Backbone:
């Protein structure tokens, strides 16, 4: 059974940083497209960053490019999202995702609150 467990969320001031982690069990992350999504209150879930399977190439949404960095550690079966210069509008639940063709798995999410 595939499980994704996120951690690292919390409360941060505008301009601050957080590092989210997602540990996978029951599978190897290398075979999946691994992604970070977020969902703000009243809004649809959106893709933030993704690493395509069997590569180290990370893709980012326009709104976070240059501020967020997604990494993958195959040995630890973990993906991370380093978020810098966070903005108030980025308050959301952040979700880890594993996708292979039409099969998707989600973590339970971790809350990120950006507030002064």
Residues:
């Amino acid at each position: 059974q595939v499980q994704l467990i996120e951690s690292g969320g919390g409360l941060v001031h505008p301009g601050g940083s957080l590092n989210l982690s997602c540990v996978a069990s029951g599978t190897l992350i290398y075979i999946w497209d691994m992604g970070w999504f977020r969902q703000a209150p009243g809004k649809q879930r959106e893709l933030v960053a993704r690493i395509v399977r069997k590569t180290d190439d990370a893709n980012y949404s326009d709104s976070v490019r240059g501020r967020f960095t997604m990494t993958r550690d195959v040995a630890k079966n973990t993906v991370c999202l380093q978020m810098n210069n966070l903005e108030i509008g980025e308050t959301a639940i952040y979700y880890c995702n594993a996708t292979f063709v039409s099969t998707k798995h989600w973590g339970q999410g971790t809350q990120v609150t950006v507030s002064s």
In short: The mean pLDDT is 96. The two ends are 40 Å apart (CA to CA).
